[in-house]
Known about the structure:
This protein is α/β, with parallel strands linked by helices. About 40% of the residues lie in helices and about 20% in strands. It has helices spanning about 15-25, 45-55, 70-80, 100-110, 145-155, 165-170, 185-190, 240-260, 260-270, 275-295, and strands at about 5-10, 35-40, 60-65, 85-90, 95, 115-125, 130, 140-145, 160-165, 195-210. Strands 1, 2, 3, 4, 5, 6, 7, 8, 9 and 10 form a 10-stranded mixed sheet that branches. Strand 6 (about 115-125) and strand 7 (about 130) form a beta hairpin. Helix 5 packs across helix 8 (about 240-260).
Amino acid sequence: NKMTFSVIIPIxxxxxxxxxxxxxxxxxxxxxxELLLIIDGSPDNSxxxxxxxxxRDKRISVFDRENCGVALxxxxxxEQARGQYIAFLDADDYWHSDYLRTVFExxxxxxxxxxxxxxxxxxxxxxxQILIQDTLNTQETHIIQNYPHQWIYSNCxxxxxxxxxxxLLKVCGGFKPGVKIAEDLDLWIRxxxxxxxxxxxxxxxxxxxxTEHSSSKVCDITDFxxxxxxxxxxxxxxxxxxxxxxxxxxxNYKLALKAGxxxxxxxxxxxxxxxxxxxxxxxxxxxxxxYLKRK
Length: 295
């Protein structure tokens, strides 16, 4: 009973947005998919909503588990999945009705690629939307060979707009457990060492910013992935990955200073190895930002 897509939705305190999320999947113009709704110990009525949908659509499976975090929850979904491709979607986000069809056509046209991502809309609390798309390459569909370089200069990839070949996920080992923030970046880096990414510059996903379910809310700095480990990764794009690592460590240094934790800030700064390229990047960005402000 294999199918093209397995859609994995981890659910924790997302009752307010869950119906919109599930409906966006069921309204897809491409119908060959299964939907895995995985309750991650959510204390609200998410289980009731999921069971109601599952009773009306055989493509839906519901799993009610103890809280273990989004990484382990997604990994569990990958283990249960029967699809050729895994499509990730957070419970407070939703898709355009042609999302799966567009991704399927992109995979079919680019069989050498095992990952596909699309542009998306960031939805603020006031309902306003910001378009997030690739600014390095404005072609409607193109190939990203160097994901760290892409992240540095046009950070336009997010989990709910990401679809991956299941076999590649097994080879790469899935999401690393015990990490609350940036566990997805780590997986994309490991995947990019194995395959290239297709990028579709059309916004086909809607990302809600700073909801309770979202990792973009205020958090403990120590919840981040230990970025310094990337310095030791064997990667095809090592130089770009080293700069990306230094930028993220520097950002955590600034976050720790802002939080008033000078000891933690000094620890992050001491972990930066790629200092000269980081300095050049920061100076370049400062000059560009001043120019844009004048404009």
